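User: I'm writing a tutorial on reading structure tokens. Could you give me a worked example: one chain, its sequence, then its tokens, then a sentence or two explaining what the tokens reveal?
Assistant: Sure. Here is the example chain.
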Amino acid sequence: MTHDLTELDRKLINRLQDDLPLVPEPFADLSREFGISQDELVDRIKALRDTGVLTRFGPFFDAEALGGAFCLCAMEVPPQRFEEVLTKVNAFPEVAHNYERDHRLNMWFVLATERPTGISATALAIEKSTGLKVLLFPKEREFFIGFRVTA
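And here are its predicted structure tokens:
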């Protein structure tokens, strides 16, 4: 799918990948940066979300620094059940990302929980809901890669 992005849309997408101002009205500050009204800025972000150009817009929190935990998980899902299982897995608010892969372990997702014990509890709840085993791949070491996509 291709999208007709304006130059302003491209600049906005690139800017949204940086930190937003930590002020009471970050969109007001951002709209001044772009020389447009706050309403237009918010409408553009909403339109980019609605059309699927942006798949996620929001903060990333370090769950571990807040006393929680992250864990990469994988499942072997029969192809004929993939959509059904996807819907069940994504219904859990602890599921942060979910990706289909082209191999035996074809569903990969990240769990983010308020407490470390929440990882195993959520994985067990997913297993009970789907009837399929959830494999846990806890982080051994963290790397910051500074991923950005230029629009």
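What the tokens reveal: The helical segments are 7-16, 26-34, 38-50, 82-90, 117-130. The chain has two domains: 7-50, 69-137.
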